[in-house]
Write a structure and sequence with these properties.
With about 170 residues, the chain is mostly helical. The chain has a domain of about 100 residues. Helix content is about 50%, strand content about 0%. It has eight helices and no strands. Helix 3 packs across helix 5 and helix 4 packs across helix 5. The protein is elongated and about 65 Å long. It starts with about 30 loop residues before the first helix and ends in a 10-residue tail after the last helix.
C-alpha cells in the first residue's frame, strides 16, 4: 500500500476480481461435443441467425464464457455430460425437465452457452449490438452537470473510505 492509501501495482484490488481468459481446465473432446450439442438444441438456427455451434468463433467464446464463470465450470460441463447420451429427438424434453427439476445445473449451463453465443462478433452484428464502449459526455455537458450542483451532497459529505481488507 502506498503512503496515500492506494494499492501498489503488485497488490490485488479486492473490489476487482482478477480476469481470467481460460477455463479452470481444458475441455475434453467429449465434453466439448456435449456442450455444443446442448448449445445447438437451446439455440437452433433461425432465419439469418446461425445455430450456436455454427456462429463464427463460438468455441473460442465458449472458452471465455467458461473462464468467466469458473465458479460453475463443473456444473456446466457435468450438466452437458449428463445429457450426452440422450437421443437427439429427446434432448429438448430432457432440457425442459432439467430446467424444472435442477436449476442449479440448468441455469448456469444455459447462461454460459447463450452468453458465449451473444459474445460472438457475428451474432452481435446480427442483433445490432455495438458492444461496450466509452461514451463520455462532451466537456460542455460535463461542466453544465457539475455546475448544476449534482456533486454538492457528495462534496458536503466529505471523504469516505472503508477498507475492504478490514484494516
Amino acid at each position: 500500500m502506498t503512503s496515500n492509501g492506494h494499492p501498489t501495482a503488485t497488490q490485488q484490488r479486492l473490489s476487482v476480481p482478477p480476469r481470467s481468459t481460460r477455463p479452470p481446465r481444458a475441455l475434453t473432446e467429449t465434453e466439448l461435443t456435449a456442450l455444443l450439442r446442448v448449445a445447438d438444441c437451446l439455440i437452433p438456427a433461425s432465419g439469418p441467425n446461425p445455430k450456436a455451434s455454427d456462429a463464427e468463433q463460438y468455441t473460442a467464446y465458449l472458452q471465455l464464457a467458461l473462464a468467466a464463470r469458473a465458479d460453475v465450470f463443473d456444473a456446466v460441463v457435468g450438466g452437458a455430460g449428463e445429457l450426452a447420451e440422450i437421443p437427439e429427438d429427446e434432448l429438448w424434453n430432457a432440457l425442459k425437465k432439467m430446467s424444472a427439476e435442477d436449476k442449479s445445473i440448468f441455469d448456469p449451463l444455459s447462461a454460459v452457452l447463450a452468453g458465449a453465443y451473444f459474445m460472438t462478433p457475428q451474432v452481435m452484428k446480427l442483433i445490432g449490438y455495438p458492444g461496450q464502449h466509452r461514451d463520455p459526455a462532451p466537456l460542455e455537458l460535463a461542466a453544465d452537470e457539475i455546475g448544476s450542483g449534482i456533486l454538492d451532497p457528495v462534496l458536503e459529505r466529505g471523504f469516505i473510505y472503508v477498507s475492504a481488507a478490514g484494516e
